């Protein structure tokens, strides 16, 4: 069975991208740069090729982390870390990713390849990048294996889920004055640059001490003098709260304008806290020692598996958006995570040792198996959806071509020239 029912395939031809970007930085600084950058790409290069090229840059960044710090340790107590120059490459790779992610839509309009496949492919790469940047930024901020990194994962995924949920209910992608794809990414680029110069331990500096406010009694009385890295986490919480309010306001307004109930969409937020709660329950299992996974080299594979499951979850949501299908309430990978979480917590639940994860070696095997199953589930989803969309629309994923009425392939730019001009 496919992911797109027969009666929903026709909606692929009705899809048209709609977006709003209120970022002043994007409008006055970045967009002129992106408009120039896209002209450097030949028109025979497919938009999805540009998107994938950007993700490859992030994957290279992640590969350097695995090479230099496979155990994902914070630099405390003499623990070695990546050379400082590596953080500059992370900054460059992420900036390239952002640039390529911004121009793939422009390339789609230049080549006449704008459509639902590009929307799906773009969101899929963004979903993967979200978790990878959580891991990389956690290392740059010297958080490493910690619940702060878990909190960062939850906040980042929640922001992405909110954006996708908002697009599903409003029909357009809304980027506010401070958004993850623009200001959020540039903030992380800045963190990488600072770490490259000062090292990860710089972020352990107490924030009030750094700002020379630690002698001001009225401030120290109400604000704890925590590290700069924890202050960054607090800023992320504020941004998340702002985005929750903004996203719901946009959904509320869209539903009221359409004469529909504005409160039912709130129920569609439930899948995210359910899936996140499963991961937290698993991570907090008391087996061997409290938070065994968080404090072991298994932490990074666990986060990667979590990120892949999340990418599958939001991928199905954006697919429902472009094909006008009902909201996807359930994800089959929840069952796997639930089984893993219950097994790891049997001692807490019924007072007996886990059936599967009863030794450190078994936990290691099961976490890596979870990563493999999550990867297989997501890649299968991507391959099948790409196959269904390209077959129905008669297009190619990584080349600028389209089938005509006879089934022959030809350049897509001439086929969609009029449509592209109207969309532009």
UniProtKB/TrEMBL annotation:
Q: Where in the cell is it found?
A: Endomembrane system
User: Which EC class heads this enzyme's classification?
Assistant: transferase
Please verify whether the record's keywords include rRNA processing: no
In its UniProt record, a GO molecular function of this protein is: diacylglycerol cholinephosphotransferase activity
According to its UniProt record, in which pathway does this protein act?
Phospholipid metabolism; phosphatidylcholine biosynthesis; phosphatidylcholine from phosphocholine: step 2/2
- Which reaction(s) are listed as its catalytic activity? CDP-N,N-dimethylethanolamine + a 1,2-diacyl-sn-glycerol = a 1,2-diacyl-sn-glycero-3-phospho-N,N-dimethylethanolamine + CMP + H(+)
UniProt keyword S-adenosyl-L-methionine, yes or no:
no
| Transmembrane segment boundaries | 50-68, 84-103, 232-251, 263-283, 292-312, 332-351, 363-381
Gene Ontology CC annotation, any one? endomembrane system
Which keywords, in A-to-Z order, does the entry hold? Membrane, Transferase, Transmembrane, Transmembrane helix
Q: How does it sit in the membrane?
A: Multi-pass membrane protein
Q: Name one Pfam family in it.
A: CDP-OH_P_transf
Which cofactors, if any, are listed as required? Answer: Mg(2+)
From what superkingdom does this record's organism come? Eukaryota
Q: Known EC number(s)?
A: 2.7.8.2
Xref: PANTHER family? BB IN A BOXCAR, ISOFORM C, ETHANOLAMINEPHOSPHOTRANSFERASE
**What is the similarity comment for this entry?**
Belongs to the CDP-alcohol phosphatidyltransferase class-I family.
- List the protein's name: diacylglycerol cholinephosphotransferase
Question: What is the organism field in this record?
Answer: Steccherinum ochraceum
């Amino acid at each position: 069975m496919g992911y797109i029912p027969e009666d929903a395939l026709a909606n692929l031809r009705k899809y048209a991208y709609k977006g709003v970007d209120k970022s002043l930085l994007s409008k006055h600084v970045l967009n002129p740069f992106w408009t120039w950058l896209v002209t450097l790409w030949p028109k025979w290069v497919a938009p999805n090729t540009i998107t994938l090229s950007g993700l490859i840059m992030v994957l290279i960044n992640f590969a350097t982390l695995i090479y230099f710090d496979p155990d994902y340790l914070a630099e405390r107590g003499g623990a070695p870390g990546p050379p400082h120059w590596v953080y500059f490459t992370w900054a460059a790779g992420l900036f390239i990713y952002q640039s390529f992610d911004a121009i793939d839509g422009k390339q789609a309009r230049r080549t006449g390849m704008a459509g639902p496949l590009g929307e799906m492919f773009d969101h899929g790469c963004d979903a993967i990048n979200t978790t990878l940047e959580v891991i990389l930024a956690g290392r740059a901020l010297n958080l490493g294996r910690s619940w702060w990194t878990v909190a960062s994962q939850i906040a980042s995924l929640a922001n992405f889920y909110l954006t996708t949920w908002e697009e599903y209910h409003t029909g357009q992608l809304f980027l506010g004055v401070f958004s993850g794809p623009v200001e959020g990414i540039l903030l992380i680029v800045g963190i990488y640059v600072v770490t490259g110069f000062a090292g990860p331990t710089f972020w352990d500096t107490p924030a009030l001490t750094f700002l020379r406010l630690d002698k001001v009694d009225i401030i120290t009385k109400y604000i704890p003098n925590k590290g700069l890295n924890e202050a960054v986490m607090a800023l992320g919480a504020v941004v998340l709260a702002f985005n929750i309010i903004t996203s719901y306001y946009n959904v509320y307004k869209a539903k009221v304008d359409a004469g529909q109930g504005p409160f039912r969409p709130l129920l569609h937020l439930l899948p995210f806290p359910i899936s996140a709660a499963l991961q937290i329950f698993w991570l907090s299992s008391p087996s061997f020692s409290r938070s065994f996974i968080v404090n072991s080299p298994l932490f990074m594979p666990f986060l990667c598996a979590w990120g892949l499951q999340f990418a599958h979850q939001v991928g199905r949501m954006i697919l429902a958006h472009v094909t006008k299908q009902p909201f996807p309430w359930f994800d089959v990978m929840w069952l796997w995570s639930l089984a893993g979480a219950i097994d790891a917590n049997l001692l807490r639940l019924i007072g007996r040792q886990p059936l599967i994860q009863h030794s450190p070696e078994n936990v290691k095997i099961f976490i890596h198996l979870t990563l493999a199953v999550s990867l297989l589930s997501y890649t299968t989803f991507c391959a099948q959806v790409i196959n269904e969309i390209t077959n129905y629309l008669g297009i190619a994923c990584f080349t600028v071509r389209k089938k005509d009425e006879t089934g022959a392939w030809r350049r897509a730019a001439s086929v969609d020239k009029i449509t592209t001009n109207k969309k532009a």
